């Protein structure tokens, strides 16, 4: 187990370096951060050269990257467009997005698995068709469309929730954005659970459990669900990163001051430290979630052993 | 009454029996390939016809939008800003006073083009690279797997926002090129797995034993059998690519005016939703139906090609 974790951590290093390098090259090599600072005006060459020197931009790209990674390891992510350190933006933004992601994740997990279980156990009947139709709709309607529609109907017309999230992001305000953010993933979770449950419910061990007179509830929870959840857990784990990235859209609709908001501001104002910094942390979250999923396999399925 | 129904049933049975008898033994014995089987299965699905007709309609209006409307999407009259439906303008006007109906019809082109070209590009690139990696293995496979790991490390929406905001293209070509760049690893992974499975089959070993060259084995034996999972993933991905394009355009980094795109129109309408919801509902509805059509087709194709799920 310990050796497996170490091997996985080592495997993550090249992926992390590659991903950050890709983002770094995209932002620094293809754009011109100094020109962006001056907007439409042409910068004074001497000033531009000075800023370039201060920002370490007068070195070859690979040196810039190494310098940047060195700074990150010391906890220095650079300064944002308004002179604040990027780390300060992160400390205000990440808790908010984390709360939003948690709400969305809970909705996605609970309702997705419940709907999938319902559909999988009533294969071919009304509940199954209903769930399939519902998930098809959820997958097809883009997030920003559901977002604006729900905001318009639930919050503005029927006044059941706040149309925007208040400062500090209380959980009550996050339910509506959470539903919007979870929507598409919820549909995938439901479909995955349905297929998996339907496949496993024909398995021999389920027949044995029923035959030996085990109560239905226990058959479903300890045998059927536990075995059916393995692919679902994989999806849920990799989805954490997608949820945090998808927050770019949801946070914009509901005016949440989280990671998506800051990232979007960084892009609008062409501030590379903000963009690269936030994306780097998101990639780390994504990789950590994947590792967690692989470790969870062993808990769910003792047949999987780590050598 | 019961008699007549009975007799019709009998008649039908008789005709089917005749038809079966009419089939020559050779025809009946001919093994149905996976593709014949899938086609047979698809033809009996109403959902396949509904989605195919919708897609056909979308392709026609993206090729010849003037068939559906004589109004230009650029003919705008500020005095009609945000007005509701009137005669000749069934969907009303947007903030700039442009005809929402015309813009909804013309918007199909961008979505359909991005969806189809991205899928083609990502599928060709992904299946060639992934297929070769699966077939040859070794260092090429190792490098390719690490590269696709790197691309998988960046959520596609995030990569899109960062990359396209720097490129500042805004044309269909730029958006397609970028989406192919981020989309191919997904297909490559599927193709690699499918080729590895196909490679170990007995008929491939037999072909190798008979002295078939690598190229012949790949093209004649492995490719046809590894194609099904790739096609399934590609069809479903087509719908999500359209959705992704609209999301990027909505965020202001994807397509840019003067390209008419549902994503741009929805983004512009979103701030006015309380005063003029019609500006948002029509392009949003058109976009959702388009994505729905492609995802329904993908579902039907998957059910037909993957008998395990039945």
Automatic annotation (TrEMBL), chain A:
Main localization, broad class: membrane
Gene3D superfamilies named in the record: MetI-like
Domain of life: Bacteria
Compartments where located: Cell membrane
Record key words, sorted: Cell membrane, Membrane, Transmembrane, Transmembrane helix, Transport
Alphabetical list of CDD domains matching this protein: TM_PBP2
Domain ABC transmembrane type-1: start-end pairs: 94-297
Family matches, as Pfam families: BPD_transp_1 (PF00528), BPD_transp_1_N (PF19300)
Family label: Belongs to the binding-protein-dependent transport system permease family.
Protein name: ABC transporter permease
Species name: Streptomyces silvisoli
């Amino acid at each position: 187990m310990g050796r497996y974790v170490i091997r996985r951590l080592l495997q993550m290093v090249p992926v992390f370096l590659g991903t950050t390098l890709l983002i770094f090259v995209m932002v620094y090599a293809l754009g011109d951060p100094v020109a962006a600072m001056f907007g439409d005006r042409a910068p004074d060459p001497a000033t531009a050269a000075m800023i370039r020197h201060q920002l370490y931009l007068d070195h070859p790209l690979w040196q810039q990257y190494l310098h940047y990674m060195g700074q990150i390891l010391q906890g220095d992510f650079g300064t944002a467009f308004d002179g604040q350190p990027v780390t300060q933006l992160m400390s205000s933004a990440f808790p908010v997005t984390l709360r939003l992601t948690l709400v969305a994740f809970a909705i996605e997990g609970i309702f997705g698995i419940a709907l999938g279980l319902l559909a999988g156990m009533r294969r071919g009947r009304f509940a199954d068709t209903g769930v399939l139709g519902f998930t098809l709709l959820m997958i097809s309607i883009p997030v920003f469309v559901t977002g604006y529609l729900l905001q318009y109907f639930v919050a503005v017309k029927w006044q059941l929730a706040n149309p925007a999230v208040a400062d500090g992001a209380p959980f009550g305000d996050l339910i509506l954005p959470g539903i919007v953010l979870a929507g598409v993933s919820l549909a995938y979770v439901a479909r995955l659970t349905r297929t998996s449950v339907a496949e496993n419910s024909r398995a021999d061990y389920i027949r044995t459990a029923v035959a030996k007179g085990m109560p239905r509830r226990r058959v479903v929870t300890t045998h059927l669900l536990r075995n059916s959840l393995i692919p679902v857990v994989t999806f849920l784990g990799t989805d954490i990163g997608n949820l945090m990235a998808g927050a770019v859209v949801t946070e914009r609709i509901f005016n949440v001051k989280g990671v998506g908001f800051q990232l979007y501001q960084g892009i609008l104002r062409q501030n590379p430290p903000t963009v690269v910094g936030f994306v780097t942390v998101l990639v780390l979250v994504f990789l950590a979630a994947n590792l967690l999923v692989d470790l969870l396999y062993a808990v769910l399925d003792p047949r999987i052993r780590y050598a | 009454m019961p008699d007549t129904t009975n007799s019709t049933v009998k008649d039908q049975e008789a005709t089917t029996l005749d038809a079966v008898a009419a089939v020559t033994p050779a025809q009946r014995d001919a093994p149905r390939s996976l593709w014949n089987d899938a086609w047979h299965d698809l033809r009996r699905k109403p959902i396949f016809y509904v989605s195919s007709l919708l897609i056909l309609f979308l392709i026609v209006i993206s090729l010849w939008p003037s068939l559906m409307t004589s109004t230009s999407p650029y003919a705008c009259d500020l005095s009609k800003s945000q007005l509701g439906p009137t005669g000749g303008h069934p969907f009303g006007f947007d903030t700039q006073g442009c005809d929402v109906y015309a813009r909804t019809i013309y918007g199909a082109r961008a979505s359909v083009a991005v969806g189809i070209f991205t899928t083609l590009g990502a599928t060709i690139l992904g299946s060639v690279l992934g297929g070769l990696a699966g077939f040859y293995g070794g260092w090429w496979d190792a490098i390719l797997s690490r590269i696709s790991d790197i691309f998988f490390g960046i959520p596609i929406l995030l990569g899109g926002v960062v990359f396209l905001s720097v490129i500042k293209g805004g044309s269909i070509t730029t958006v397609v090129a970028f989406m192919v760049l981020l989309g191919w690893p997904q297909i490559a992974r599927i193709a690699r797995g499918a080729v590895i499975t196909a490679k170990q089959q007995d008929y491939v070993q037999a072909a190798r034993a008979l002295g078939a060259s690598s190229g012949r084995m790949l093209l004649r034996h492995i490719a046809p059998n590894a194609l099904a999972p790739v096609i399934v993933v590609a069809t479903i991905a087509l719908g999500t690519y359209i959705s992704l394009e609209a999301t990027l355009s909505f965020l202001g980094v994807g397509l840019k005016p003067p390209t008419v795109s549902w994503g741009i129109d929805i983004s512009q309408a979103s701030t006015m939703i309380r005063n003029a919801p019609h500006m948002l509902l029509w392009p949003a509805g058109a976009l959702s139906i388009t994505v729905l059509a492609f995802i329904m087709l993908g579902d039907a194709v998957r059910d037909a090609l993957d008998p395990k799920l039945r």
